[in-house]
C-alpha cells in the first residue's frame, strides 16, 4: 500500500517473520529431536549437544520405509497416469458436445465430487476381496483411478470450455485432420496447464493418502509411505528420536519436489481448488 | 459550450443505454458439435467411474438400512432406520455433534489467520515468496506424519516436548492429550498448522485480483487501512471467502488422519468424529450396516454444504 510509513513497514516485516518462525518451530523440533541419541532428555528446543546420524540409519534399515517409497512411487505414478488418460479422454466430448445427454453425463460425473469415499468403502472392500486384490497395489490403483476421476474431469472440462477455442480444431479439420487426430495433436498440447494442475493435486493426494491403504493394504507386506510410518510408530511407540528420523525420511521426497516446483504447486492448489 | 440546440434522442421515460445493456438476449452461437463424433472417448472413464464410485456407493446406501455385519451369511436383513436410531442413541450422537463443532471452529480460525497472513504477505515484506513457500509447505506433507509430530510435541508429562519445556521452567505438567477438552484443542492446532497455508494461498490469489488503482483512489479520499479493507478489498474477495469456507467445512467434516494419529478417538471415545467412527465400526466391530449409515450421514452433510456453496457462488457471479 502506498501510504505505509517506515514504522508500519517494519511492523509488517516483524509480524511476517514472527509468524513464519512459529510455523517453523515444529519443524525445528522435528529435526533437532531426530539427530539426538535416545537417552538425551534435554528439552527439545535446546540444540542437541551430541548430534548423531544413527537414528536415520536405524530408521532406514529397520523400518519398511525403503520398500514403501517404491510402492508409493508405483501407486502414485500408475494411478495418476490412468486418471489423466481416461479423464482427458472423457472430458473432451463432455466439453465439446452440446447435446443434453452430454450435459447430463457431466453432472453425473460431478456427483462424484460430493460423495464421501466412506460410503463406497465397504462394498468396494468386498469387491476387492472377491477379486483377490486386497493387499496388492492394484486395489489402490483401481480405487484412486475412480475416486480422483470426477475432480480431473471437472478441471479439464471447464478448462476446455473456457480456455481452448474451437477454432483450432475446426482449422485442423479443414486441413484434413480426422477428429481423433485433431484431439491428439491440437487439443491435448493446449491442455498442458490444466494437466499440470491435475498431476500436482492428484499425486500429492495419492502420495499422502492414509485411509485407503489402511483399509485395502492392512495386514499385507506391501505398504505405502504413510502405512510404513503407521507401522513403525506402532512398533517403537516411545523412541521418539527414531520415529522422528523416520518421519523426516518420509517427508524428503515430497518436500524436495515441492521446493523445486513450488511456484507451480502453489499456483496449482490456488487455481485448482478455486475450480 | 451549450447543448440547448441538440436533440437528445430519448423516448420519454426510458433511458437509452440501460435497455441495450440490461435485457440483450444471450447470444447463442450454433456450433458444430465436434466432440459428438468422439463420444466413445468417454467409455473408459465412465466404466471406471461406475465400477469404483457409483455401484459401490449405491450398495453402501442400501447397506445403511440393513444389519449387514461380518457375521452375516447370505443376504443381510432390511432393518429400516434402526442403524440411525442406534447411532444417535449411542456414542455416535455426540461424535456427530463434535464433528460439526470441530469443523466450525477450524473453519473460522483458518479463515481469520489465513486472511491475515495473506494480507501480510501481500504487502511489502522482504522475501515474501520464501515466507509463503514455508507457510504453505505443510500442505504437501502427509497429515498422518503431521499428526505424529504434534503427538510428540504435546505428549504426556515427562515425554512430550511442551511438557519438557514446562518442567525445565519449573511449571506444572499438563496432560494435553489425556484430557478430552485439551485434546480437541491440540487436534485443532494440528489441523490449523497444516492447512492454513492453503487458505492463505487462495486469499493471496484473490488479492491479486484487487486493482491497486482502486485502493489508491480510496486512500486519496482519506480511507484508512481498515476502511479500505472493509469497503474495497473485502467485497472483491467474496468468492475466495466462499471457497475457503466451504472447502474448510467439507474438509473439517472428513477429518480423519490427524485424529487417528493424535488420539485415535480417545480418551474414552471423547474425540471420536464421524470419520474415525466409520473406521472403528468397520474395523473393530465389523458392523458394516452401522458404518454405512454413518457414512450416509456424512454424505448428506457434505451434499447440503456443497449445494449452499454452489448457490452462493452463483449469486455472487450474477451480482458482480
What do these coordinates show?
The complex is a heterodimer of chains A (about 280) and B (about 325). Chain A is an all-alpha fold and about 280 residues long. Chain A has 14 helices and no strands. Chain A folds into two domains: about 45 residues, no CATH class; about 210 residues, MetI-like (MetI-like fold). The longest helix of chain A has about 30 residues. Chain A starts with 5 loop residues before the first helix and ends with a helix. Chain B has about 325 residues and is mostly helical. In chain B, helix 6 packs across helix 8 and helix 9 runs antiparallel to helix 10. Chain B is globular. Chain B starts with 15 loop residues before the first helix and ends with a helix. Chains A and B meet through helix 1, helix 3, helix 4, helix 5 and helix 6 of A and helix 2, helix 4, helix 5, helix 6 and helix 7 of B.
Produce a short descriptive summary:
With 275 residues, chain A is mainly alpha-helical. Chain A has 14 helices and no strands. The longest helix of chain A is centred in the N-terminal third of the chain and has 32 residues, at 65-96.
Amino acid at each position: 500500500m502506498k501510504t505505509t510509513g517506515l514504522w508500519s513497514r517494519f511492523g509488517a516485516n516483524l509480524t511476517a517473520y514472527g509468524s513464519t518462525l512459529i510455523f517453523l518451530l515444529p519443524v525445528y523440533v522435528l529435526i533437532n529431536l531426530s539427530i539426538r541419541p535416545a537417552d538425551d532428555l534435554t528439552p527439545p528446543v535446546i540444540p542437541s549437544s551430541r548430534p548423531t546420524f544413527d537414528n536415520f540409519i536405524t530408521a532406514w534399515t529397520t523400518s519398511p520405509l525403503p520398500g514403501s517409497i517404491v510402492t508409493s512411487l508405483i501407486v502414485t505414478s500408475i494411478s495418476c497416469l490412468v486418471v489423466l488418460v481416461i479423464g482427458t479422454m472423457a472430458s473432451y466430448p463432455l466439453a465439446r458436445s452440446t447435446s443434453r445427454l452430454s450435459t447430463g453425463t457431466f453432472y453425473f460425473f460431478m456427483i462424484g465430487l460430493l460423495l464421501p469415499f466412506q460410503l463406497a468403502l465397504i462394498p468396494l472392500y468386498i469387491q476387492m476381496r472377491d477379486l483377490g486384490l486386497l493387499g496388492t497395489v492394484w486395489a489402490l490403483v483401481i480405487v484412486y483411478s475412480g475416486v480422483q476421476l470426477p475432480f480431473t474431469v471437472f478441471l479439464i472440462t471447464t478448462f476446455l470450455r473456457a480456455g481452448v477455442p474451437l477454432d483450432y480444431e475446426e482449422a485442423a479439420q479443414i486441413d484434413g485432420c480426422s477428429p481423433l487426430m485433431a484431439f491428439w495433436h491440437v487439443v491435448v498440447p493446449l491442455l498442458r496447464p490444466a494437466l499440470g494442475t491435475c498431476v500436482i493435486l492428484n499425486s500429492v493426494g495419492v502420495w499422502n493418502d492414509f485411509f485407503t491403504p489402511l483399509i485395502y493394504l492392512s495386514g499385507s507386506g506391501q505398504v505405502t509411505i504413510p502405512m510404513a510410518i503407521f507401522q513403525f510408530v506402532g512398533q517403537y511407540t516411545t523412541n521418539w528420536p527414531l520415529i522422528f528420523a523416520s518421519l523426516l525420511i518420509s517427508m524428503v521426497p515430497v518436500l524436495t519436489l515441492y521446493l523445486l516446483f513450488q511456484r507451480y504447486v502453489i499456483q496449482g492448489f490456488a487455481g485448482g481448488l478455486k475450480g | 459550450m451549450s447543448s440547448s440546440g441538440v436533440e437528445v434522442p430519448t423516448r420519454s421515460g426510458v433511458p437509452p443505454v440501460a435497455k441495450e445493456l440490461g435485457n440483450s438476449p444471450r447470444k447463442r452461437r450454433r456450433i458444430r458439435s465436434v466432440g459428438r463424433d468422439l463420444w466413445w472417448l468417454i467409455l473408459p472413464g465412465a466404466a471406471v467411474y461406475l465400477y469404483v464410485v457409483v455401484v459401490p456407493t449405491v450398495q453402501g446406501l442400501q447397506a445403511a438400512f440393513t444389519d449387514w455385519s461380518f457375521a452375516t451369511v447370505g443376504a443381510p436383513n432390511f432393518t429400516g432406520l434402526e442403524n440411525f436410531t442406534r447411532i444417535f442413541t449411542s456414542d455416535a450422537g455426540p461424535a456427530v455433534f463434535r464433528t460439526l463443532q470441530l469443523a466450525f471452529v477450524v473453519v473460522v480460525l483458518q479463515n481469520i489467520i489465513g486472511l491475515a497472513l495473506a494480507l501480510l504477505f501481500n504487502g511489502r515484506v522482504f522475501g515474501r515468496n520464501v515466507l509463503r513457500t514455508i507457510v504453505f509447505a505443510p500442505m504437501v506433507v502427509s497429515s498422518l506424519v503431521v499428526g505424529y509430530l504434534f503427538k510428540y510435541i504435546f505428549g504426556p508429562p515427562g515425554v512430550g516436548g511442551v511438557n519438557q519445556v514446562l518442567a525445565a521452567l519449573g511449571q506444572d505438567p499438563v496432560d494435553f492429550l489425556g484430557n478430552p477438552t485439551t485434546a480437541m484443542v491440540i487436534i485443532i492446532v494440528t489441523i490449523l498448522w497444516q492447512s492454513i497455508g492453503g487458505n492463505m494461498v487462495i486469499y493471496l490469489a484473490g488479492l491479486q485480483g484487487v486493482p491497486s488503482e482502486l485502493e489508491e483512489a480510496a486512500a486519496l479520499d482519506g480511507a484508512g487501512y481498515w476502511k479500505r479493507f472493509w469497503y474495497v478489498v473485502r467485497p472483491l474477495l467474496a468468492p475466495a471467502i466462499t471457497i475457503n469456507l466451504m472447502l474448510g467445512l467439507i474438509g473439517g467434516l472428513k477429518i480423519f488422519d490427524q485424529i487417528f494419529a493424535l488420539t485415535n478417538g480417545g480418551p474414552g471415545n471423547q474425540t471420536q468424529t464421524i470419520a474415525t467412527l466409520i473406521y472403528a465400526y468397520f474395523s473393530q466391530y465389523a458392523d458394516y450396516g452401522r458404518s454405512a449409515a454413518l457414512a450416509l450421514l456424512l454424505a448428506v452433510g457434505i451434499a447440503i454444504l456443497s449445494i449452499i456453496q454452489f448457490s452462493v457462488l452463483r449469486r455472487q457471479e450474477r451480482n458482480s
